[in-house]
Structure formats: structure tokens, C-alpha cells
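Hi team,

As requested, here is the filled-out complex form for the iron/sulfur cluster run. I kept the field names the same as last time so the parser does not choke. Let me know if anything looks off before we queue the next batch.

— J.
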Amino acid sequence: VRALLVNVGHGQEPADPHPRHHVAPMDLAQCAAILEADGWRVELWDTVLTPSASSAEIEARVRHKAPDLLIVRPLHASLHVAEQLLRSQAGTTALRLAMGPLVPHIANDLLADGELGRAADGAIVGEPEPTLIDLLPHLREGRLPASLAGLRTRAGEREKPRAFLKDLDSLPIPAQHLLVGRGYRFRYPLDVDGPLHIGYVLTSRGCALGCIFCAPVERETFGTKYRFRSADHVVDELLRLRELGANAVYFIDDFFGFSPRRIRDLCEAMIARDAVMPWCAQIRAQGISLDLLRLMRRAGCSTLCFGAESGSDRVLGLLRKGVTVAEVREQAARIRHAGIQLVGYFIVGVPGETDAERQTTYDFIEEIAPDLVQLHIFNVFPGAPAMDMFPERYVEEGTKFTGPRGLDQRMIDLDRERRSFYRRYYLSPRYLGRALRRRWRPLLHNFGEEAEFVVRTTRFFLERP
Ligand code: SF4
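And here is what came back:
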């Protein structure tokens, strides 16, 4: 029995040249591991890695494979491509399933019996792995059960909800051999002496925080209760990654820094089991001691990212960030002191923010001087708490990178201002000197990718909004 899992990132690259990562679809890789353990021959395709392939070519390739099971994972910008891909495989694939964070919102469309027939036979809603495990005996028979928690098979009918997994260690390690070395791109600075072979690892699930700009669709799959894997389970995966040739890791958790105790256990296990390699993770902009940061550094931590958002306490309050500017400043200083690089996320254009407060944010960025700055324009995404607060700011188009361009003059002005800040910041002798001092080895050894990054970034700075 053969399964083909497709991450449909195709169509995701917008026209603007803003550089971005290619984040590996860890949920698909986890499902691949479950299928492989059940004896399936599994292939995992990610269309984001082949951006020049047209939708028709991808459909033809899948048709040629004629798998017994096709699982498609749509992304926001590729919904129609994913739906069409599923639809185009009717008759050549025994079973067509959709899964991923967006599926609860499009399941009814995929399952509707329209003129063209249904696009999918079933939609996995919520955390996919337990549902897939229960589905295994049915999949081998090429059919879906009429009723199974977490699986929707008819448009308009809600599936029985499935409880979130309590023990993440009960899952097999994701099928990293289907991801490593496939060309996934990672853009943050990492201390890697040689060509970068990035591995992605998810160590925890769920986030209970209430940032008003956070799109719930990104959190629905894993819920709001924080769960995490044991240190040894994660280290097993790191060792596997190294076997496969990865030389750096991005922990893609929404909330890696939830518990200092957990980070300490993980770092100690990495050191004890010789799984030290450069890694990057996202933490809160406060609450990690210098002592712990030094341990993280010894365990290979190369880069930490946090959402500092604003240089104004009043705006941080509007965003319900639960941190103060002073705390962010101290956390940034500790990170630098520990010899770790910093990626800072900031937001401008928050409703109610004054010009002076926005200027404070630019000044604050200069002050804490992150090694990489991402400056976002405030957007309201569907379902985010901000949608109730500022419905007039809701836009369907636009991303957190581009902002809702072209909608109103204020947004266009903000975008111009942002690019001008980027130019000032990144092209300053201070920044260039520090970047070269810290990153000359990676630049030398990973020249092709770094050069492409610089070209893209420069184009983005210079492009007229
Ligand atoms: S933005 Fe991140 S930290 Fe904030 S609620 Fe969303 S997932 Fe949690």
C-alpha cells in the first residue's frame, strides 16, 4: 500500500520579494511515521520546494503515482490549488483525505457533492495523529468508517470531537528522512560553519496566551493547553536528524519558552547525550535567566527569537502582551550577554498608536539592536481577538509580512516608513560590522543561499509599496 502526502504550499510565494523560511510540515511528517510503522510505503511532497511546477504538473504527477492514499495539506494561500488537486485525483486514488490547520474551515466545501463531485473523501479535523491511528485498519481496506472522532466525511455534519493527546511521547518520531536535505530554507542567522542543512523539530503543542493579533486558526489544531515531549524523546529526534545530515535545528514550537524547567531538562539531555548542534527557538520576551541562557548556549543555542512588538508600554498593553519594555530590554541584554543572537519581532500601526509611540518603537529597536528585525504592520486576521476590537481593520488580503497593501493611504505610508527603517537599520555601518564579525563563516560557507537572501532583502527594501 502506498501513501502520498502533499503539502500544498504552491501559490504561497506572493509577488513581493520578502525573504521567508520554508517551514517543513511536521504534522505530515508525523503522520508519515505512523503510516510507515503500519507498513505503508510513504512519499511526502512539498510543493513549496518546487515553486516553478504548475498546478497542472503537480496534478499530473500525483495522477501518475496513483497512490492508495492521498493526504493533502492546504495552506492559506493555496486553498484553491489544494482543492483542485484533490478533485483532480478522483478515480485514480483510492482515498483522498485533507488535513492541516485550515481544514476545519474548508471541510464542508471539500466534502460537498457538487456538480464536479466531492473533492475529498474525508477531512481530518484537529490533532491528526490519533485519528490517523484509528483509521489505519480502514485505510488498508480502502474505505472510511461512517463515524470516527476527528474525521468528517459529509458536508455539514460535524465530526465527534477528539480529545487532545495527553502524552506526546506516545507518537513516533516524525519521518525526518522525508524532510532533511530536501531544500527547506531557513532565514534566521545561525552559527553554522558550512552549508546549512536545517532540521525542523516540534517539541511542544498548545499556547494559552492571548495576544490579540494571534490568528486562532493557527492554534486550533493543538489547542490552548500546553503539552510537551520529554527531553529524551526530543533528543532521540535530534540524534536522528544528525544521522540524516542536518547540522542545525529550528524548534518550531509556538511557545518553546513556556517553562524554564523544561528548557533546562532539554539542554542538559542534549549535552549529556552529545546532541549539541546550533539551534534556534522562539521564547517570551522575559523570564529566562542568564544562568539558563548560558546553559542553552552550551547546548548549542545559536539564536533566540521573541516578540518585543513595541517600544511603548501603552501599546504593549493594547496588544495584551503581558510584558513591559523594561523586561524586554533586560531579556535582550541577557541573551546578548550569553553570546546568543537575537531575532526581534515588532509591530507598527497598532490601532490607537501615536506617531510618537511608533517612533519609540524604532528607537527601541536601535537600542536593543537585534541581529535580525522583523517589522510587521498590524493586521487583523480572521477570528483573532483583534477582529472584535477593530473590525474596520480586518482585511482578507495581505500577510503579516506585507501588511494589507493598497487598502488605504495610511497602510501604504506605514509600509514605506517600514522599508525606510529597514534600510537605515540594516545598512548602517554598526549593523554591517557586527553581522560580518559574527557571521563571516556562515556567509563564506553558505554563500549561495546567503547571497540570494541579501538580493531578496535588498529588493524588498527598495521596492515601492
Ligand atoms: S502569538 Fe504566539 S504566544 Fe501569542 S497567543 Fe499566538 S501562539 Fe501564543
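Two things worth flagging: Residues 397-406 have pLDDT under 50 and may be disordered. The first strand starts at residue 2 and ends at 8.

Thanks,
J.
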